[in-house]
Amino acid sequence: MSKYSPFNCFMMERKPEVERRLGRYLPMWELASEVSEEWQAMSNSEKMRYQRLCSQQGDKLDSYGVPLRLREEENQMKKQEARDMQHHIADIVNKYHSSGGLGLLPFYVISGSFYLRMDEGCYVPAEISLLKFSFKTGIIREFHAIVEPFLPVSYRWLAMKHSRATHNLLPKDGADGEKIKQVARSPTQVANRIKNFLSEDYDKCRPLYTLHSEVEQVQQMLHSMTGEDRLKVYSLDILFQHIHSVLIRKILLHESTDVITESLWEYHVGIACKWHIDNEQDSVRYCTMSCVKRWVFLMCRHIGMVPAFGVVPEEGKHYPVEEPVLSTVVNLPLLMQNLNMPDDISSGIISAIPTSSPAPQEATLGTCHHRR
């Protein structure tokens, strides 16, 4: 393993002061971006001091040039944050359940998709959706935003590959590009809109909840847009696990995850954002608005609103609005004629169709039903 590089030594020296100035902890990748200009402006004689200093260091580095000791410190900090999150969620659920106010407790559910995942866990945000929700009221308010794609040229192919496999937000041609430009906003604009949506809850640092497996991803995207660590992102799976435990019975975390991620409404078009409904209906399962609505609808469905809270579920608030069933009239004789089907086969098919109901004025012998 390599020793410290001079730049690593410089970062370690500057780390406490930069964190005090910004008022928050900085991961190594962000610290490097904060001090890189200062390092480049230093003279060779100034850098020599760090060259001598790094030769005295014994810490080993990982493949990114980050000391393993700092990696371990970050891991320990993440474990402590996970414990704090567990305690906070348990305290909130128990407090409101004991006072009879759990059904009225509002909480925020968030989902974020990305254009690209870069080295060191950096995500380029693509789409953000937020719901304010309570079990008694259902969905209270909605927020949705598509973020303008700011992609390094060298990562363009990877981003396009990811987009086509998931949300399809990256334009495939000029026409698609114009559609995205009409609705996409800069990261700063999206950050300001999120702050306005959260209103006073932003200042209160009320946590946002997302899938357990996506907590770090969403946290990083919010930080990259807001430039702050004020917004805390917690596990929706753990929240539902505690709610289920106080209302029905104790369940394991993976059972909670299975409920929230059930595929029941993955292709229910009506719960997606307007852009996906109008342009990419085949990708609605990856739409972040579809995700947050599915999660809260599935929680309501599994808990049982009447026995748990004495609330009759409301369409669009606790479960999706039913999509209309469209009927298509099919002229079977004409269809068979166009398919060059032999007369003996077509006659057998037609004679097998019940004729008890009155036939329409036109010569129609079959009706095919499908969902839009």
Q: In short, what is this structure?
A:
With 372 residues, this protein is α/β, with parallel strands linked by helices.
What does it look like?
- This protein is of the alpha/beta class and 372 residues long.
- It folds into three domains: 6-66; 77-309, 2-Layer Sandwich (Nucleotidyltransferase, domain 5); 325-371, no CATH class.
- It is 50% helix and 14% strand.
- The protein is built from 16 helices and eight strands.
- The chain has helices at 6-22, 28-41, 44-55, 68-98, 156-165, 174-183, 187-198, 200-203, 215-226, 236-247, 253-260, 274-279, 288-303, 305-309, 332-338, 343-351; strands spanning 107-117, 123-134, 138-147, 184-185, 208-210, 233-235, 325-330, 366-371.
- The chain has a six-stranded mixed β-sheet.
- Strand 5, helix 9 (215-226) and strand 6 form a beta-alpha-beta unit.
- The chain starts with 5 loop residues before the first helix and ends with a strand.
- Mean pLDDT is 84; it is low at 356-372.
- Belongs to the maelstrom family.
- One of its GO terms (biological process) is negative regulation of DNA-templated transcription.
- It is found in: Cytoplasm; Nucleus.
- GO terms for molecular function: sequence-specific DNA binding.
